[in-house]
């Protein structure tokens, strides 16, 4: 009986170790780098948040099956010793370590890992507006995908969408079906075209899937660069 007890314990340990190893091996890595001249406060859900001076990188990981995930930059933040404060753009309920999505305007990198057919789905979005130029790209040899939004969207922003530190998404300004697409039946508008003309691979309105969502094989690693 003692032999079978030991065997059972060893078998459990092997299975547990194998499961942990699988999760570690297949977790996607995201290197988040600030190339902007000013300090930014990177944010990620899941992941939290971190202050990044120019040239600094923050690395996070996300497990297979993670979805509705976002990475973005926060600008002009001030936090106290307890990690509480406020940012001009991208603020997440006044917390350094974000637990929820940020306040617009914020340029977004979005992803869902290990979805249909063992593929990762990745995109960038200006639906919530624009605050910082960004690149979201794969770094593994199995996928060669680069998404960028680097135009002067803040400087060229239509007057109706201008806010301190960024260019607001039209839904947040007008709050109408035309811009918010709550019914799922909508098309591009003049304001969404402003974003699309400058960042053609990036979501400009909610039904912009055909030209804005991309895939990589599960197991791919990625990087997000602010001011690429």
Automatic annotation (TrEMBL):
Keywords: Signal. The keyword Signal applies. Residues 1-27 form the signal peptide. InterPro entries: Osmotin/thaumatin-like_sf, Thaumatin, Thaumatin_CS. The keyword Signal applies. Pfam families: Thaumatin. This is Thaumatin-like protein. It comes from Xanthoceras sorbifolium.
């Amino acid at each position: 009986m003692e032999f079978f007890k030991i065997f059972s314990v060893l078998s459990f340990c092997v299975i547990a170790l194998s499961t942990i190893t699988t999760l570690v091996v297949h977790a996607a890595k995201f290197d988040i780098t600030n190339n902007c001249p000013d300090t930014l406060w990177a944010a990620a859900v899941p992941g939290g948040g971190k202050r990044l001076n120019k040239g600094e990188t923050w690395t996070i990981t996300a497990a297979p099956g993670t979805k509705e995930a976002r990475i973005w930059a926060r600008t002009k933040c001030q936090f106290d010793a307890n990690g509480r404060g406020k940012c001009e753009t991208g603020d997440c309920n006044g917390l350094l370590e974000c637990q929820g999505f940020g306040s617009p305007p914020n340029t977004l990198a979005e992803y869902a890992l290990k979805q249909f057919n063992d593929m990762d789905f990745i995109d960038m979005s200006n639906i919530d507006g624009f605050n910082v130029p960004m690149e979201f790209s794969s770094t593994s040899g199995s996928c060669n995908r680069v998404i960028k939004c680097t135009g002067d969207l803040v400087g060229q922003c239509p007057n109706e969408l201008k806010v301190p530190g960024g260019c607001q998404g039209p839904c947040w300004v007008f709050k109408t079906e035309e811009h918010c697409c709550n019914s799922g039946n909508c098309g591009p508008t003049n304001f969404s075209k402003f974003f699309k003309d400058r960042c053609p691979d990036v979501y400009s309105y909610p039904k912009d899937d055909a030209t804005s969502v991309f895939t990589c094989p599960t197991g791919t690693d990625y990087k997000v660069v602010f001011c690429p």
